[in-house]
Specification:
This protein is an alpha/beta fold and 372 residues long. The chain has 13 helices and 18 strands.
Length: 372
């Protein structure tokens, strides 16, 4: 039986572990021993290892026996962890969504004969796959992606719960947003250019600029206009902007009573409690992709809810199962090229695209497509 190791056992890592353990031997590595014990209790097929994932030398030794590595570490650790995996000559599917440009590791991956699928989540991820696929049959002149994960129950003041680390969410709110306008990269402040997007299942949501295009800025630069915006309940941005303006997201070290800290560290720690998504708490993930050419408009909507049958959040499902679809492509030699491959490149390959969409449909992740 082929062996897979997952670095990171949070909500998404756990969902991927359960999914992949149906057909493979799966080991999950995390620093949180209690989390791993709960995971093992729920699924005896899994192997668990308690390990600090920031110790890259140990990680390089740890992954040696495995056929494929899944990298699901926090974003600030992602680039160096991915580099370490490639240096160890291991195929990898990555969903750490680090701020650095993964394509910088392409030469290293080719040299070490490694297949590395990166950003293989929902957005970036599934949205990119759809874009890459339709780019083969349309002369697309504009691409829009609107995406967000939200709790069903609104709780003031933020009406938001984070399905992953609050520090990664805050990073979305403070990192300048790169969009593509008239065939040029344009940088705008995050949280800007609010607009209202409506879905039948959710009503009105507010959309705002975040730095979500990532690899698309380079791989799809033939498309003159591209944006990605994050979705939240109306009013959320105003509250986040206030925190940002006051300085709660600053990273400059301050000293109070001989204790050094950054406002960002304190804010993230507070919001970790405020934004904590409780077990079995109802939530949903929503995404809209719009692609236009001179002749038609294609709109693809995704709406997914918490899965009661498996106690899996929608964000873990949509992110995790896209990733495990990618793992299956690699481990079963359905995709064998060496290098760094963002999702849009995989979406351009007809067989890979069909496999991923069918894989998601089998897990009741359904896309609704409208063409005008």
């Amino acid at each position: 039986m082929k062996q897979i190791i997952i670095l990171g056992g949070g909500r998404v890592g756990s969902a991927m572990a359960h999914d992949l353990s149906k057909n493979y031997s799966v080991t999950v590595v995390d620093i949180n021993k209690i989390l791993l014990q709960k995971l093992k209790k729920k699924n005896q097929r899994l192997q668990i290892i308690t390990q600090n994932l920031s110790d890259l030398e140990k990680i390089q030794k740890l992954i040696k026996p495995y056929d494929v590595v899944v990298c699901a570490v926090p974003g600030f650790m992602g680039f160096q962890t991915l580099k370490t995996i490639i240096q160890a000559k291991k195929h990898v599917v990555d969903i750490s969504f680090f701020p650095e440009n993964a394509l910088e590791l392409n030469d290293l991956a080719i040299k070490n004969k490694v297949t590395a699928l990166v950003d293989f989540g929902v957005a970036p991820g599934l949205g990119n796959i759809l874009f890459g696929h339709y780019d083969q049959t349309m002369d697309i002149d504009s691409y829009e992606c609107y995406v967000g994960g939200l709790p069903k129950k609104k709780e003031l003041p933020f009406e938001y719960k984070a399905p992953f680390s609050p520090i990664d969410v805050i990073e979305e709110y403070i990192r300048p947003a790169r969009i593509f306008a008239n065939s040029k990269i344009v940088t705008k402040e995050a949280l800007t250019e609010l607009e209202t997007i409506s879905f039948d299942q959710t009503g009105d949501l507010e959309a705002f600029n975040t730095d979500g295009l990532r690899s698309l800025l380079y791989t799809m630069s033939h498309v003159p206009n591209m944006i990605e915006k994050t979705l939240r309940y109306p009013g959320h941005v105003q509250k986040i902007q206030l925190l940002k303006d006051i300085g709660f997201f600053d990273q400059k070290i301050r000293t109070v009573n001989n204790q050094n800290y950054t406002p960002l560290e304190i804010t993230a720690d507070i919001l970790k409690e405020k934004w904590f998504l409780k077990d079995k708490e109802q939530e949903f993930t929503v995404m809209r992709i719009i692609m236009n050419d001179k002749n038609k408009k294609v709109q693809i909507d995704l709406y997914d809810e918490y899965d009661h049958s498996t106690d899996t959040t929608s964000m873990a499902r949509t992110t995790g199962y896209t990733c495990t679809a990618g793992v299956n492509l690699v481990i079963n030699n359905l995709f064998t090229d060496y290098g760094i491959f963002p999702p849009e490149i995989i979406g351009q390959k007809h067989e890979c695209y069909n496999f991923i969409i069918q894989y998601l449909e089998e897990r009741n992740i359904i896309l609704e497509t409208k063409t005008n």
